Please model this.
Amino acid sequence: MKFSVCTDAVFSGTPTLEAFAKVRENGFDAVEFWSWENKDLPAIVAEARRLRLEIAAFCTRGVSLVDPSQRDAYLAGLRESLEAAKFCGTSVLISLVGNDTDAPRNIQRTSLVEGLRAAAPLLEAANVTLAVEPLNVRYDHKGYFLTSSQEAFDIVAEVASPHVKVLYDIYHQQITEGNLINTLTTNLAAVAHVHVAGHPSRHELDNGEINAPHIFSALDRAGYAGFIGLEYFPLREPSEGLRTVASLMR
Model:
């Protein structure tokens, strides 16, 4: 299995370059982060190369896909994000879809599908995969449009591009729907990236009701070849939690 550490979460408050060094010190060889716009990308790329870290993923600009009036702004932001991905050597971009606009749901869904279809040629030309992320609205992202992983899988099937897939977040989907392993393994071809955190409260993987080692084993048996992004907020010193993940990997 391939793991990447989301430095904006696991090392929240730590300068990015320091966080990269701590990731490497703890034996991991890939990182990811949220926004790229507020980061010094030349310094990040230089440090990642020095430490032999892969930059596995980061987010596109946060522009709504469910609001058709924002379509051009979304695509402009995607073009910029693709340039950033090329510079960083990153092949997966994470995309949120935006909050419910209160328009009829079918209108928003149509806008989402059409926006992703418009994005597909840009992604294909850059050989980058967009990972569309459903989130939970019960605790963390009230008002967000896309919550169901099945709806996300249905949407990317409609878009019908190999460069538009789903980010399956184990933490969010445990809250929203459960049935984690079956959902993941039966839709694996449409999964570009996986996120994981403990539940409840989004802390370390050994904290809560999610059996992370069992899920990892199922993904491995199913042939998942992408990254599992560690996107949790530590209760303990971050390196301790990462050492625990390293033991789970073994």
